[in-house]
Automatic annotation (TrEMBL):
Pfam families reported for this sequence: DUF4767
Keywords annotated in UniProt: Signal
Residue intervals of the DUF4767 domain: 74-213
Span of the signal peptide: 1-23
InterPro entries named in the record: DUF4767
Keyword Transmembrane assigned: no
Entry protein name: DUF4767 domain-containing protein
Region (Disordered): 21-79
Residue spans of biased composition, Low complexity class: 45-71
Biased amino acid composition, Basic and acidic residues: 35-44
Amino acid sequence: MKKQVAGTLVLLAALLAGCGKSADQTDETASSKQPKTEVKDKQSSKSSAQAESSSSAASSSSAKESSSASQTQAMWNPSKAQQLKQFMGRFSQKMNQQYQAYQPGNNVNFYGLQIPDDVLNHKNGSQASIGERPINVKWSTNGQAGDGVYSLVAVYSDAKDQSYGNQHVYFFTIVDGEPQVLITMQNQGMPHNYLHFSETKNQELRQEFAQLVSEKDM
């Protein structure tokens, strides 16, 4: 009987020892797996931060592009040119002067000068000036020919139908973002081959052109 009890106690002790070892191994296994979960969590956080950073950079870039596009928006375009043409039709009737539009390759004979080509190309030394100050004039379809340059966006003249000495040429220009309507009635050659312009005093012309230049998204 005592031998049976002793044997039973030995068996129980062995079982308890085995369970303890198994529990220790389970804890070690769980402990060894825990750092991997932490690494995955860190990698996930890093990826999320990178994604947020990329999204922020993309938004910033898009905002800059939008701002740049707004700043460089054309000051002149075909729609504005058409509106100016319609206005000049009404202006012609009001002034009893037949104004027609001209551009490079389509010139008006203005006292022997082919306008605007002779001035734009400085043919025979022709030079546009305001008073005695020569100005740099370039044809432009968007009103942005460069700093200090008079961007010539439209030319109107009644020289084809008007009598000698009463002919007008209007240069519609934009210089450094500012609209200026220049006029000349010069009917003879001048020193330095200057074609003298001055800013028109006609308020209706000035206001109409300024309004067209300032309008957006036309």
